[in-house]
Amino acid sequence: MLDGEEGNDLVRGDATIDRIENTGGGFDTLSYATGVTPGFFNRPNFPYFFPDFSEYEGFPQSPAGRGAYIDLEAGRGDNGRAPDGGGFDEEVGGEAFDVVRGR
User: Along the chain (103 residues), what's the average pLDDT of each consecutive run of 10 residues?
Assistant: First the structure.
């Protein structure tokens, strides 16, 4: 688990598979700005239900070049497989952070 704890923190959701939360005070940032490789996969089925990305003109059809998919309502952040340098975070408590950065 990654936890912002007390003080001003930068928590990165990138090359690992984690639960992310912020239990402390301060001005805290959740960042997926470094989470670009290898990119997230299509996950249209239970339990993920990602959108159909083929509906978006110019959007990469393969994971390469997609960057990170962040869904704070569902508590998920995805930028591909951890063995390839990505990560799939579940239980992302984004509501506890002051700033959320993506790419």
Answer: 79 77 85 73 84 86 82 84 79 82 67
Q: Which has the closest alpha carbon to 68: 53, 79, 81, 80?
A: 79
Task: Judge contact between 102 and 39, C-beta under 8 A.
Answer: no
Task: Tell me whether strands 76-78 and 69-71 are parallel, antiparallel or unpaired.
Answer: antiparallel
DSSP per-residue string spanning 14-47? SSS---EE--S-S-EEEE-TT--SS-PPP--STT
Structure tokens at 13: 């959701």
Give the closest residue to 89 by CA, choosing from 77, 75, 72, 74. 77
Q: Of 100, 91, 98, whose CA–CA distance to 25 is shortest? A: 98
